[in-house]
Amino acid sequence: MATMHLSVVTPDGSVFDGEVEMVSVRAESGEMGILPGHVPTVAPLKIDAVRIKHENKEKLLAVSEGFIEVRSDAVNILAEAAETPGEIDPERARIAKERAEERLARINEEEIDVMRARLALKRADTRLKVSEGA
Amino acid sequence: MASLKEIKGRIQSTKKTKQITSAMEMVSASKLNKAQQNAQRYEPYTKKIKDVVSGIAAGSSGISHPMLEERPVKKTGYIAIFTDQGLAGAYNSNILRDLMQTLRERHQSKDEYSVIVIGRTGRDLLKRYGIPMFDEITGLPDQPSFNDIKNVTRLAVDLYANEDVDELYIWYNHFINPIQQKVTEKKLLPLTEEVSEENSKGTAQYEYEPSPEAILKQLLPQYAESLIYGALLDAKASEFGARMTAMSAATDNANNMVDDLTLSYNRARQAAVTQEITEIVGGAAALE
Questions:
Q1: How far apart (Å, rounded) are the C-alpha atoms in residues B109 and B86?
Q2: Predicted confidence (pLDDT) per residue in A41-69, tens digit
Q3: Do A28 and B147 touch (CB under 8 A)?
Q4: In the structure, what pLDDT confidence band is assigned to residue A96 with cuts at 50, 70 and 90?
Q5: Does B218 touch chain A (CB under 8 A)?
Q6: Residues of chain A found within 8 Å of residue B55, distances taken between Cβ atoms
Q7: For the domain with range A4-83, which CATH number is right: 2.60.40.2550, 3.40.50.2000, 3.30.43.10, 2.60.15.10?
Q8: What contacts B200, CB < 8 A, 6 or more positions away?
Q9: Is residue B182 packed enough to be buried (19+ CB in 10 Å), middle (13-18) or exposed (0-12)?
Q10: Among the entry's GO cellular component annotations, what is one (chain B) (predicted)?
Q11: With contacts defined as CB-CB under 8 Å, which chain B residues touch A69?
Q12: pLDDT above 50 for B200
């Protein structure tokens, strides 16, 4: 089966670098599945899991604040953070989730940065999802 | 001449100091190593973002974004990276001197600029000079991760987006080699240079999902943030390089001092021995 080169890069280094058969991501405009030979595209990503398929195995990555760049020969995902299931601390993610939920519940009482709390919740959710999916 | 005991005490204390400085030299050397690795790992990220940004700018004309456009400057923001600890040679004073000079040359009054300062030493120094500050960040780890400085980058980008500042510069020591650091000023925002200087060769024509503007909206802040992070990594490498060099010089000086002191110790001992012999000989002669 045809493959393409995928690299996932963050400011703290490269997280994934290798040949894959398919990548599926959640872009701002909706779910995108990318197979080799895709039209060159640039799209911002939502905070969510990125699914990588290679030799019938599926890998998950938790990606936040990133975008995807598809070229004719390669796919790049650039994100502020990207983690493999092994790198995620489920306990920490759970605590972060609780904190974010608690903040969102108190919105009306205090001045809280709603946007930030929502993003934090989304990040924690994604991490939990990815770490459980492993 | 000082007594034997005094000299001995000084030799010992100098040796102790030497132990400390040489230990710090080695610690800095290993931290420098790590800092350089971090800087290397970060390199591809910023390069890729830059590729995409310039690709969009070159490929589609007529797009606009506040971060790409110069506007009349009413207030200038500066980010200055200092160290938390001292003992790094002229690292902090170099950057302070150049920054102060630039501020004096460029601005008539203190209302025209404000600084985001990173590092305890820098904060104390700038406070003493009464420089207006947006924020101060201290206690960053030696190997900062992107998350550690998220607040700074957010703040900087927000300041620009909210038009609190109309341009943004960053000041830091650029790492040339462990002995040499160069005070560097970089214009962060607006990103005029980055984009216009770039040639469009090799950039494929992309489909933009949903639109080039929407992508720039996310991408440009991300790019600006990555530039700040890059400068910080560079500055950290410089810091350890500067500290390593300073500590190596201190160790050498301590060695010289120990040598000098040992020499005067031996001289004093010799003098004491000679004097004693003279006294004995004199005493014996008097008996005859």
A1: 30
A2: 888 888 888 888 888 888 888 888 788 88
A3: no
A4: confident
A5: yes
A6: 42
A7: 2.60.15.10
A8: B54, B55, B58, B59
A9: exposed
A10: plasma membrane
A11: 48, 52, 206
A12: no
Q: What is the number of other CB atoms lying within 10 angstroms of the CB of residue B85?
A: 11
Percent of chain B's residues with pLDDT above 70: 93
Check if the interface score ipTM surpasses 0.85: no
Residue B59 has what pLDDT? 65
Chain B nearest-CA residue for A43: B209
Conformational region of residue B87, where left means phi above 0, alpha means psi within -120 to 50, and beta covers everything else: left
In tens, the pLDDT along B166-198 reads 888 999 999 888 888 899 888 888 877 655 544
CATH 3.40.1380.10 fits B26-196+206-244, yes or no: yes
A134 in Cβ contact with A60 (< 8 Å): yes
pLDDT of residue B38: 87
Break chain A into its structural domains and give their ranges. Answer: 4-83, 87-133
Residue B204: what pLDDT? 55
Chain B residues whose CB is inside 8 A of the A11 CB are: 42, 45-46, 145-146, 226, 229
**Smallest Cα distance from A85 to chain B, Å:** 19
